[in-house]
Amino acid sequence: MGTLEAQPYDGGSGTVGAPVGRDAVADMKPGTAKLLVVSSAKGGGCKTTTARNLAVIAAHCKLRVATVDLDAQGTLSIWHRLRPPGAPRIEHRVSDIKGSAKPIQAVVKNGGFDLVVVDTPPGIENHAGDVRAIIKLADFVVIPSQPLNSDINSNVDWARSVRRDGTRFAFLLSRTFRNRTAFGEAKQRLIEAGPLCAFDIRDAASVNNSDKAGLGNYEIRGDAVGQDFLGAWSDVARQLGFVVEEV
Questions:
Q1: Among 54, 69, 103, 120, fewest CB within 10 Å belongs to which?
Q2: Boundaries of domain holding 121
């Protein structure tokens, strides 16, 4: 099984870059999808941004991808409606958070997808039981966190719950400024608390621009944040078993 690779979609040209390196996808058997849950204890930590960007890159790798929006604000759903017709296809589902574990499990088992990406609502303390039920089903959890002290504290506590449920996870530092002292301090604290994705997501105006266009940042040619998410995807894809190192 080889490496999943993708080539950016250039929305301005009206063409879709053709993904290459199909070894990993070709080896997959039809049936149960991998379930990736994006969850954070604090709002504003790029949770929805992370969900859509990872889903987009996976779709460029020719994985059959579905996203599930559990947030009553519907931010991911609004983005999906704006998606250009020529971009790689991503199926989308909407569900109320209450009792959502069973319908999500049905999509994972019977939806015909390779990857299901779930965007959970902010304020997990209001939906703790339902979110934890989904976490227990997940193959992997990404916990985005801004490098702010309050965000780090909340997300470290949340990660303890995820670990107790026996689910693998990784922190993802988001909205970063790499030349600031807080960036290094945040990295150190998260590394001490659990696995940390090797790639962080810098703060940039292009995140808002891609959201308004129904794109992932990877689909904006030359966008630095798109490359950040590509690096994050390489970590996540390996954790999900889509990429196995050649021996």
A1: 103
A2: 23-240
Task: State the pTM of this model.
Answer: 0.89
Residue 15 lies in a domain: no
Q: Per residue of the chain (247 residues), give pLDDT as tens.
A: 344 455 555 554 333 333 333 344 434 445 689 999 999 988 777 999 999 999 999 999 999 999 999 998 999 999 999 999 989 999 999 999 999 999 999 999 999 999 999 999 987 777 888 999 999 999 999 999 999 999 999 999 999 999 999 999 999 999 999 999 989 999 999 999 999 999 999 999 999 999 999 999 999 989 999 999 999 999 999 999 997 555 4
- Domains in the chain: how many in total? 1
- Diameter over CA atoms, the chain: 48
Hey, which bits of the chain come out as E strands? 34-38, 65-69, 91-94, 115-119, 140-145, 169-176, 201-202
- Provide the CATH number for the domain around residue 208: 3.40.50.300
